[in-house]
């Protein structure tokens, strides 16, 4: 738990609990403005996830866990011994905030399992302990993944990333950028080429911010520039995060990831997906079953607050796509690495004995 009042967010500060409330770095305004918003009510946290104040699959799960703490406190304050019934509406609000990142549902399910074990007294302390544990476990998992992913890279090489799978998208350190941090520290990375990632620009605004903050060489590029860069022969890996990995190893991630993976395969470049096991959903057999979030087309029709398209222009704005397992060379989790993923290999990983997540 934070011991000093959060003031200026760093990349590790997507979500922080301090005294009696949750603080979220407002990722909608980074890096131009670095500021926290504070939350004391679960419905406000659900809206913060929907509006992408906080985003990034693991960070969404951590935030939802803290949202359940707020929900439990409010339910006990209003319903006393009946808090387990009163909390349900807020749990549903949190679950309805965004559909694709399975970490959200994983975190709520883990908090529900605790709720079932609690008695009718104030659940806040126990819920907070569990949310803090989820947060710390995610941070530790990212460091483990960073090391495992770095071992796969011979280097020195250039890397392409897409979107932001960094510290600010997780409980800290990052998934894809956690591998980048560990591999750079081992002298294996010359430069990171970060796709700007239209329309929400997570790459331009967040990945560039994180890597410059850490002194890691980063070059921003248009999403469409990745192909010619790959043709140049300097890129050894595409490294991305994920929002949900199906039982067969299909990977849902930010829109554009699928195209990158096709380009990588064409150019003999390897694709690494770094994600904690809280991102693996063994209940969906393949990527075809993963719900793909469609966001407001206004996010696409404008850029930086300026209208791009003509009035009345129709747009589609799916914000994730699915990369088939056949185009993924390695899935790196905190429990281990799956090369050339298949359902059998993913099942073996999830059955491995490195504790429940
Ligand atoms: C480790 S973040 C995983 C994932 O989340 C991002 O999506 P969004 O920014 O819409 O929450 C992106 O797909 C990242 O790769």
Describe, in plain words, how this protein is organized in 3D.
The chain is of the alpha/beta class. The chain folds into 2 domains: 125 residues, translation initiation factor eif-2b, domain 1 (Four Helix Bundle (Hemerythrin (Met), subunit A), Up-down Bundle), CATH 1.20.120.420; 209 residues, Translation initiation factor eif-2b, domain 2 (Rossmann fold, 3-Layer(aba) Sandwich), CATH 3.40.50. It is built from 12 helices and 16 strands. It has a 7-stranded mixed beta sheet with strand order 6-5-4-7-10-15-16, sandwiched between helices. It has a 4-stranded mixed beta sheet with strand order 11-8-9-14, covered by helices on one side. Strand 5, helix 8 and strand 6 form a beta-alpha-beta unit. Helix 2 packs parallel to helix 5 and helix 5 runs antiparallel to helix 6. The model has no long low-confidence stretch (mean pLDDT 97). The protein binds ligand LNRAV4D5. Ligand LNRAV4D5 binds next to helix 2 and strand 9. The ligand CSC[C@H]1O[C@H](OP(=O)(O)O)[C@H](O)[C@@H]1O binds next to helix 2 and strand 9.
């Amino acid at each position: 738990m934070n011991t000093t009042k959060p003031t200026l967010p760093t990349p590790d500060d997507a979500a922080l609990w301090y005294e009696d409330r949750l603080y979220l770095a407002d990722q909608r305004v980074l890096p131009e403005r670095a500021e926290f918003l504070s939350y004391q009510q679960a419905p406000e946290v659900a809206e913060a996830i929907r509006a992408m104040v906080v985003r990034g699959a693991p960070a969404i799960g951590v935030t939802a866990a803290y949202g359940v703490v707020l929900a439990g406190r409010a339910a006990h304050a209003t319903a006393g011994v009946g808090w387990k019934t009163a909390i349900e509406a807020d749990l549903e609000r949190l679950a309805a905030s965004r559909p694709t990142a399975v970490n959200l549902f994983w975190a709520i399910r883990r908090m529900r399992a605790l709720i079932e074990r609690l008695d009718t007294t104030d659940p806040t302390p126990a819920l907070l302990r569990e949310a803090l544990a989820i947060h710390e476990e995610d941070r530790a998992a990212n460091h483990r993944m960073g090391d495992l992913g770095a071992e796969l890279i011979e280097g020195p090489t250039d890397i392409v990333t897409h979107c932001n799978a960094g510290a600010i998208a997780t409980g800290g350190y990052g998934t894809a950028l956690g591998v980048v941090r560990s591999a750079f520290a081992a002298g294996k990375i010359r430069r990171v080429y970060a796709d700007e990632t239209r329309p929400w620009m997570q790459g331009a605004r967040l990945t560039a911010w994180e890597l410059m903050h850490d002194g890691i060489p980063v070059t921003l590029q248009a999403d469409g520039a990745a192909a010619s860069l790959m043709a140049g022969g300097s890129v050894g890996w595409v490294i991305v995060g994920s929002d949900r990995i199906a039982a067969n190893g299909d990977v849902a991630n930010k829109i554009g990831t699928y195209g990158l993976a096709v380009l990588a395969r064409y150019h003999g470049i390897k694709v690494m997906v770094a994600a904690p096991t809280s991102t693996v959903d063994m209940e969906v057999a393949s990527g075809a079953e993963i719900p793909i979030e469609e966001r407001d087309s206004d996010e696409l029709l404008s850029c930086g607050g300026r209208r791009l398209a003509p009035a009345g222009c129709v747009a589609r704005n799916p914000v994730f796509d699915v990369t088939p397992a056949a185009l993924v060379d390695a899935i790196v989790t905190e429990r281990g690495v799956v090369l050339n993923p298949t359902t059998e290999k993913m099942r073996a990983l999830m059955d491995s004995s490195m504790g429940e997540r």
